[in-house]
Amino acid sequence: MQLNINGRNHNVEVEADTPLLWVIREQVGLTGTKYGCGVAQCGACSIHLNGEVVRSCLLPVSAVKPGDRIVTIEGLSRDSSHPVQKAWAELDVAQCGFCQSGQVMAAAALLRKKPKPTDKDIDEAMTNICRCGTYHRIRAAIHRAAGTKTAAADVAADAGNTTV
What we know:
The chain is α+β, with helices and mostly antiparallel strands. The protein has helices spanning 20-27, 73-76, 83-90, 100-113, 119-125, 135-146, 151-159, and strands at 2-5, 8-11, 46-49, 52-55, 69-71. The chain is globular and about 45 Å long.
């Protein structure tokens, strides 16, 4: 089977029911996409499939059609210059960092659909779990990437607080 991942074609030999996450990590060697829960709840495995954010831990590789485009965190930008990645770094969003590749992928997909999201839009779209509880910094970073920063969120993020 041939997969287009981050703009490159990869030939892989795997069972049809192999989760896409394991193909990306083990067969292709892109380890930025993480395994978190294995039941598509936490979002650590989030990738883009044809521009839509999907959780790859339960998606069988057989569900990927010829011509589908897969983008992982490694393909979002080669040099971390994507606005979401820049905002994440500027606001020091990550604590442990484990969930962050999935969070960034979900945020990038949100901004592609809604370039100027409201807090409500962010709350509805960002369903990934962060065990460290950096949700306020995540929200502030999304606003910063969109150029719509809110005063309360930026103050909290700049101060390193996770509550507003």
